[in-house]
């Protein structure tokens, strides 16, 4: 599926740059993408208004705040009616430790990314989710040992053009 928003190469340059440098000034952004300041600002505002840019945030270094664990949990729910999916999603959404939740195809129904201070906290969270009776039939978890690759942002140019990175 191609983009619903009509974006040209300058819009893409703006998005790519803002993914890397979200706090840059409009002056710096316009210089980086090759537009004068006024059109650059107008394009950025348009991208915000149409919802392509959802917001701005800080890239927080969790390791500087203290110890933590990142866990991916594969969750299978017992029933597969629309109501059952909504029940699980609403229940999972109550916990801040669940930072990402994906409804996936394959051998399980959801993939959760959980960030907790330690394994005991993670285990207590999973026990709480089971006690909440939100439809979990079974789950399997993987504790992240290290993260050898992390990219900030998405491969916007590849998504927009459909052209692979290896060509």
Automatic annotation (TrEMBL):
Q: Which SMART domains match?
A: HTH_ASNC
InterPro entries named in the record: AsnC-type_HTH_dom (IPR000485), Dimeric_a/b-barrel (IPR011008), Tscrpt_reg_AsnC-like (IPR019888), Tscrpt_reg_AsnC/Lrp_C (IPR019887), Tscrpt_reg_HTH_AsnC-type_CS (IPR019885), WH-like_DNA-bd_sf (IPR036388), WH_DNA-bd_sf (IPR036390)
Q: Keywords of this protein's UniProt record, alphabetized?
A: DNA-binding, Transcription, Transcription regulation
- Keyword DNA-binding in record: yes
User: Biological process (GO) annotations?
Assistant: response to amino acid
Q: Name one Pfam family in it.
A: HTH_24
- Which stretches make up the HTH asnC-type domain? 7-68
Keyword hit for Transcription: yes
GO MF term set? sequence-specific DNA binding
Q: Which SUPFAM superfamilies match?
A: Dimeric alpha+beta barrel, Winged helix' DNA-binding domain
Q: Which GO terms describe its cellular component?
A: cytosol
Q: What is this protein called?
A: AsnC family transcriptional regulator
């Amino acid at each position: 599926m191609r983009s619903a928003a009509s974006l040209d190469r300058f819009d893409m340059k703006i998005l790519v740059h803002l993914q890397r440098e979200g706090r840059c000034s409009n002056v710096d952004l316009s210089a980086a993408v090759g537009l004068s300041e006024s059109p650059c600002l107008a394009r950025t505002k348009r991208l915000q208004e149409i919802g392509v840019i959802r917001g701005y945030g800080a890239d927080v270094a969790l390791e500087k705040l203290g110890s933590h664990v990142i866990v991916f949990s594969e969750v299978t729910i017992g029933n597969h009616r629309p109501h059952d999916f909504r029940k699980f999603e609403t229940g999972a959404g109550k916990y801040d430790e669940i930072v990402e939740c994906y409804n996936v195809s394959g051998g399980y129904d959801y993939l959760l990314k959980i960030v907790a201070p330690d394994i005991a906290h993670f285990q207590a969270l999973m026990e709480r989710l089971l006690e909440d009776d939100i439809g979990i039939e079974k789950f399997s978890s993987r504790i992240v040992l290290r993260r050898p690759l992390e990219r900030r942002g998405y491969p916007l140019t590849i998504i927009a053009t459909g052209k692979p990175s290896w060509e």
